[in-house]
Write a structure and sequence with these properties.
- By secondary structure, the chain is α/β, with parallel strands linked by helices.
- Helix content is 37%, strand content 19%.
- The strands form 2 sheets. It has an 8-stranded mixed sheet, with helices on both faces. Strands 2-3 form a two-stranded antiparallel sheet.
- Helix 7 runs parallel beside helix 8.
- The mean pLDDT is 97.
- The structure holds S-adenosylmethionine (SAM).
Length: 271
């Protein structure tokens, strides 16, 4: 496991994933009944953008660095939560910020040092449980949820070959084990072919109600580069599609500035 998110926190991929995650969590919190969030690749929870790792890549400057002055419009909720955090909040810190008293957050992180940092961060929060185990094993162990409503976020670093296939299988498994849960799964866009194969696998999996929200930095002609990224959303709450379109357009306007940049929101499977 070589990937450390501290080098990448706040980059354009985090902005896409986290802005849409905030919208999904707000929708879950609209109903008074408790919900649970399972974050299968949690990282360390919160990041210091002045730290050596973040400075070395400077990736956040082309991501959250371009958004921090936003106070209105579709990104204001997400950016407001980042400002309020003080550091850069990863998915665990964003989820914790939006959870109510009776809600629950299960965080899974396999990297020993990152797991220890994460556990320390949430030591005093009784709503949060931190697990050191494999993400895909955790999906089987921790679903269905006792609350019967909530969200699973899968945010693999895509370090290993076969990750699109593992992710498609996990989405299918969650859908079979806990049909109504909202699922959000991040994926990289380097070349077109692997993404097309991933979408086809999802379309043929039998899982219903799948959207793919993508932000494209440029045409994916050089497959050695991260040319964009996407978030698969299963069982999107009512109103999410419209919110996602506005969020994607607002991200494009600030972040995706090269020729060939853009966004898309595609329905992969009907409700
Ligand atoms: C992209 S980062 C997560 C970022 C986090 N979700 C966020 O948005 O703030 C991916 C994390 O997954 C962890 N990881 C990699 N393989 C894993 C596995 N098989 N099971 C659990 N965690 C894993 C890595 O150590 C890394 O911290």
């Amino acid at each position: 496991m070589n990937y450390r998110h501290a080098f990448h926190a706040g980059n354009f991929a985090d902005c896409l994933k986290h802005a849409l995650l905030v919208s999904l969590l707000r929708a879950l919190a609209r109903k008074p009944t408790p919900f649970r969030v399972l974050d299968t690749h949690a990282g360390i929870g919160r990041y210091d953008l002045d730290a050596e790792e973040a400075r070395r890549t400077g990736e956040w400057q082309q991501g959250i660095g371009r958004l921090m002055d936003i106070t209105e419009g579709p990104l204001a909720d997400y950016v407001g939560l980042v400002r309020a955090d003080g550091g850069y909040p990863g998915s665990p810190a964003l989820a914790a910020a939006l959870l109510r008293t009776g809600d629950a957050l299960a965080l899974v992180e396999l990297h020993a040092a990152d797991h220890a940092t994460l556990r320390e961060l949430f030591r005093r929060d009784p709503r949060v449980a931190v697990h050191k185990r494999d993400a895909f094993e955790a999906v089987r162990a921790l679903t269905p949820f006792p609350e019967r409503r909530g969200l699973v976020l899968m945010d693999s670093p895509f370090e290993q070959p076969g990750e699109y296939e593992r992710l498609a299988a996990a989405i299918g498994e969650i859908s079979r084990r806990a049909r109504g849960l909202v699922q959000a799964a991040w994926y990289p866009i380097k070349g077109r072919a692997p993404v097309r194969a991933f979408h086809t696998a999802l379309r043929e999996s039998g899982v219903r109600d799948i959207l793919a929200a993508e932000l494209h930095l440029r045409e994916p002609t050089d497959a050695a580069r991260l040319n964009g990224c996407g978030l698969i959303v299963v069982n999107a709450p009512h109103g999410f599609e419209e919110a996602a379109r506005s969020i994607l357009e607002a991200l494009r306007a600030r972040i995706s500035l090269e020729a060939g940049a853009g966004w898309s929101l595609t329905r992969i499977a009907d409700e």
